[in-house]
């Protein structure tokens, strides 16, 4: 993947020495492992004595500054009573100092009194919009659960960011999505999300079956064995809404159907289709 906002800086003592290719080869090996490539014009090479006024070095510093401008931090606490953001902010600042980086004030996104199950968090939504318009290409958080409590919602967020070449660093878990370990975490989350969805479906269907053993119909529903006619087109729309992370209650309201009908429709669809 060719990455326009990535740069490399190389300094060597002489132009044609025996170790001429050592640094470029090491950098390229690292890039290849991450599936990345730096454009030719973003390679900055200094030859001779160390001089911070050399044009290549100065240009590299400018590129670094530009990358830092696209850095963001997200912080969340579920309650404003007794919960403070200090520990998260301090951990992120310590991480940044170790990287010799700094985040602009308007790139701190802080939600207070918002649970992880609530996707309509104001600052989280502001962060998503800034990512969409290309203002942010890396997000630092204290823990993964700051982004969301649901494994499926968290996975959807990570997949979206990966598609936009946005990196995520989670300090507590030592996760960096640009590393092989980080990508492995995403794969594990995908597996857990599929299990999570399957378990919820099984519990829902078990509850419905247990209720119908002693009742002719579900509360607010039709008699046992009957269901509102749902066209194939509507089934596709219901599945799409579920894949987008909408709750069963919200889907039922959107399509003016009962929750049991939505559960019944989804139960007839393969989990791989819903989670794909």
What structural keywords apply?
3 domains; Rossmann fold; elongated; alpha/beta; two-stranded parallel ribbon; 276 residues; 5-stranded mixed sheet
Q: What is this structure, in a nutshell?
A:
This protein has 276 residues and is α/β, with parallel strands linked by helices. It has helices spanning 22-33, 55-69, 86-98, 122-132, 151-163, 180-212, 232-243, 248-255, 259-267, 271-275, and strands at 8-12, 43-47, 71-77, 108-112, 138-141, 167-170, 175-176. A five-stranded mixed sheet has the order 4-3-5-6-7, with helices on both faces. A two-stranded parallel ribbon has the order 1-2.
How is the topology of this model organized?
Elements: E1 8-12, H1 22-33, E2 43-47, H2 55-69, E3 71-77, H3 86-98, E4 108-112, H4 122-132, E5 138-141, H5 151-163, E6 167-170, E7 175-176, H6 180-212, H7 232-243, H8 248-255, H9 259-267, H10 271-275
Parallel strand pairs: 1-2, 3-4, 3-5, 5-6
Antiparallel strand pairs: 6-7
Helix pairs in contact: 5-6, 6-9, 8-9
């Amino acid at each position: 993947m060719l990455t326009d906002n990535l740069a490399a800086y190389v300094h060597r003592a002489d132009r044609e020495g025996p170790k001429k290719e050592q640094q470029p080869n090491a950098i390229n090996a690292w890039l290849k492992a991450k599936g990345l490539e730096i454009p030719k014009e973003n390679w900055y090479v200094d030859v001779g004595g160390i001089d911070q006024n050399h044009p290549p070095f100065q240009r590299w510093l400018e590129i670094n500054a530009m990358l830092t401008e696209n850095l963001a931090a997200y912080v969340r606490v579920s309650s404003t009573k007794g919960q403070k953001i200090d520990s998260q902010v301090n951990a992120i600042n310590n991480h940044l100092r170790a990287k010799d980086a700094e985040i602009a004030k308007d790139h701190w996104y802080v939600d207070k009194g918002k649970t992880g199950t609530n996707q309509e968090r104001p600052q989280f939504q502001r962060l998503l919009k800034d990512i969409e318009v290309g203002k942010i290409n890396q997000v630092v958080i204290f823990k993964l659960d700051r982004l969301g409590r649901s494994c499926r919602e968290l996975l959807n967020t990570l997949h979206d960011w990966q598609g936009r070449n946005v990196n995520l660093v989670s300090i507590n878990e030592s996760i960096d999505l640009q590393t092989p370990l980080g990508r492995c975490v995403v794969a594990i989350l995908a597996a857990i999300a599929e299990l999570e969805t399957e378990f919820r479906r099984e519990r829902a269907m078990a509850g419905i079956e247990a209720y119908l053993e002693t009742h002719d119909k579900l509360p607010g529903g039709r008699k046992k064995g009957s269901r509102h006619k749902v066209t194939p087109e509507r089934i596709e729309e219901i599945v799409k809404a579920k894949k987008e992370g909408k709750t069963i209650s919200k889907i039922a309201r959107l399509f003016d159907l009962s929750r049991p009908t939505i559960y019944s429709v989804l139960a007839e669809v393969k989990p791989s289709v819903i989670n794909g």
